[in-house]
Amino acid sequence: MIAAKRLAAFSIVIAAILFETSNQSLGASAIAKSPDQIEGKTYRLERAFLISVHIPSASVNRVLQSLTAAVGLEYGSYAQVAYVDAEGVEQFRSLAGSKDGAQKEVDKVPSKVVTVSVIHDTAVLQKALDAINQAHSYEEPVIYITEGWRNRSTSPDEQNPNRWWNQQH
Predict the structure, then answer these.
(1) What is the pLDDT of residue 11?
(2) Could you tell me the domains of the chain?
(3) Are the CB atoms for 141 and 63 separated by under 8 Å?
């Protein structure tokens, strides 16, 4: 009886090891492909910085003009490419040490989040950040930067019925 239990336990351990090894090799082959190796019939990926900025609604055009002048905001055959979220409300309370000084009340400002991408080049990122900080009205602009990948077209896929030029108007 003890020998049978030991054999069963040994079998379970061996099965678990074999299962884990096969899962690791499956996972390794999926992970082994880097995003810059992912390419479809009409697209490829390239490294990029994604920049999201909270901007008071009244200042959005000024910041976008500054960014465009500094880095162009190019995306393939297009320039001045940006995504501007619908208006929301940004809130904050100034603390001691801020230009406004310590405040007891929370300020609420109509604001938008503007998101742009730039090529994965720290010199271009620096120019974009300089342009934002120069044009932004806040003492400390709320800026988030993410490294990632962006989709780029390698072919317009001329016959694709979903492309805007193939749509019935």
Answers:
(1) 52
(2) 46-151 (3.30.70.120)
(3) no
